[in-house]
Amino acid sequence: DEAVFLRKKITLLRAFSLLIGSMVGSGIFISPKGVLKNSGSVGFSLVVWFACGLLSMFGALCYAELGTRITKSGGHYIYILETLGPLPGFLFLWAEFFAIRPANSAVVSLAFGRYMLEPFFAPCAAPVPAVKLVSLLGYYTVLTLNSWSVTWSARLQTALSIVKLLALALIIVPGMMLLAQGHTENFQDAFDRQSLVLDKLPLAFYAGMFAYSGWFQTSFVREELVRPERNIPLAVIVSVITVIVGYMLTNVSYYTVLGKQDVLASPAVAVSFVQRAFKSLISVVPVLVALSCFGTMNGGIFTFSRTLFVASREGQWPPLFSMIHIRRHTPLPAVMLMFPLVTAMVCIGDIYHLLNFFSFSRWLFIGLATLGLIVHRYRHPELHSPFKVPLFVPVSFTIICLFTVAMSFYSDPVNISIGCTMVLSGFPVYYLIIHRQMSNRCRRPFYYLTHKLQLLLEVVQQEVKTY
User: Fold this and answer.
1) Once rounded to an integer, what is the mean pLDDT over residues 11-38?
2) CA 285 to each of CA 18, 116, 166, 279, 282: distance values in angstroms, whole numbers, following the listed order
3) What is the pLDDT of residue 319?
4) Degrees (nearest 5) of the Cα angle 87, 92, 95?
5) Are 174 and 249 contacting, i.e. CB atoms less than 8 angstroms apart?
6) What is the mean predicted confidence (pLDDT) over 76-88?
7) Gap between the Cα atoms of 242 and 222, Å rounded
8) How far from chain centre, in Å, is Cα 168?
9) What is the pLDDT of residues 206-228, one digit of tens each?
10) What 3-state class would DSSP assign to 325?
11) Which helix (H) or strand (E) holds 461?
12) How far apart are CA 191 and CA 40, in angstroms?
């Protein structure tokens, strides 16, 4: 009896929880090793962490303005499509579906599995097959929840955001207590220039920016936000500042308790920290970290399904994925599409190789999206935006993103070349299928398959426009 469409159920608190829940996840618990390894010293690693936070704030401000200018959901995809055109938009969608998002989800899932099993096998490392099995179980649980209810997914994200902040507090407090007692020996000669290798710095930034990634999540669900013109800028500014402060204090705590070699040797930095500083919580903190990763998986599925939903609505993805479940009001086909690729990457992948693999494509397209903001301002000077950032913010953010992407070819040519090939492979697909429309005769089998799947999944097209 009701119209079928995505309801506006994301309030300011839920938007803040979505951002915190997406940013504070596996990154702060696995990335310190990657940042330290590629920056060379404790001091330079802290500089990288702060620079990544500042860069994330610049990007978040750019996306907040884009979110007030462009009223559709879809995040990076819709911003690139609306500002730079259909070909760059499709190339992002292609790379996001086949490389960026499944690799990102696999990294978070593997971190979830590793931390979930750590208390049961300590002091030994958990068996790799067991880690991958638990990782997949966690991912499938979140997938099922997002297929079932938007409201319950949002409530879970709010609850897990509190858990994430509690996990950070349990690391920060004992570290700060030891630092106040004068334990500064691990900060001696913090800026050792001999260990600094400049061509590895882009990989350090990739690891740091992975930990901050998530500041763009509200842009994916713009149509479901209550009062987006007010709530998008407010949510991103408060959440990014909160995370910057939390991450800097967490890293200082890590280095206060663990030396440089301890961090580099640890497969799970947070667990090593607790073993050294707070043995009474040895079984608690890994579970809190695993729940943090669980929240990041939830936020990732929640938002990326909206990208596929919008791309289908724009005619660049099969029409089935713009359909909504008639009772649940969830984009069920878009939610379910990712699980085969994520399953494959969890089964065959390694966290740090996956991290470098998808970071190239992600930051290339984020840089293009903020370049699109500059282009959109130039093309539409008459358009009033309720939130506007100074021009130097998108200009500097775009230059840094594209420069880091270019430099990464020297740092990790193999994984970056694979990521570049994945992006370029979208060109023939675009010109054969999207640009050159198929005839009705060729479309007929797809119409038949779509109809059968529509009946099976109980989904229909959105009946009203909310953008």
Assistant:
1) 78
2) 22, 10, 9, 10, 6
3) 83
4) 125
5) no
6) 90
7) 22
8) 19
9) 778 878 887 888 887 888 788 88
10) strand
11) strand 459-461
12) 9
Select the CATH number that applies to the domain covering 12-461 from these four: 1.20.59.10, 3.30.360.20, 1.10.3720.10, 1.20.1740.10: 1.20.1740.10
- The pLDDT, as a whole number, for residue 7 is 67
Residue 175 to residue 177: CA distance in whole angstroms: 5
Q: What is the four-CA torsion angle of 231, 234, 238, 239, rounded to 10 degrees?
A: 40
Domain residue spans of the chain: 12-461
Average pLDDT over residues 13-33: 77
Query: Quick one: which of 221, 209, 206, 212 has its CA closest to 301?
Result: 221
CA 227 from centre of chain: 24
Give the type of residue at 439. Answer: S
CA distance 35 to 53: 13
DSSP, res 225:
B
CA distance 38 to 200: 5
CA 109 to chain centre: 12
Cβ atoms 138, 116 nearer than 8 A: yes
Could you give the CA distance from residue 239 to residue 161 in angstroms, rounded to a whole number? 11
Would you state the structure tokens that stand for residue 84, as one six-digit string?
């730079």
Round to whole Å and give the CA distance between 120 and 102. 28
**What is the amino acid identity at position 71?**
T
**For 369-414, how does the pLDDT look when each residue is reduced to its tens digit (9 = 90+)?**
999 999 998 888 877 778 888 999 999 999 988 887 887 777 667 7
Segment of 12-16, 119-123, 355-359, 452-456 carrying the highest mean pLDDT: 12-16
Q: For residues 264 and 38, what is the distance between their CA atoms, to the nearest angstrom?
A: 11
Mean residue pLDDT across the chain: 80
What sign results for the dihedral spanned by CA atoms 122, 125, 131, 135? positive
Q: What percent of the chain has pLDDT over 70?
A: 87
Beta bridge partners of 461: 323
Q: Does residue 55 surpass a pLDDT of 70?
A: yes
Q: Which amino acid is at 429?
A: V
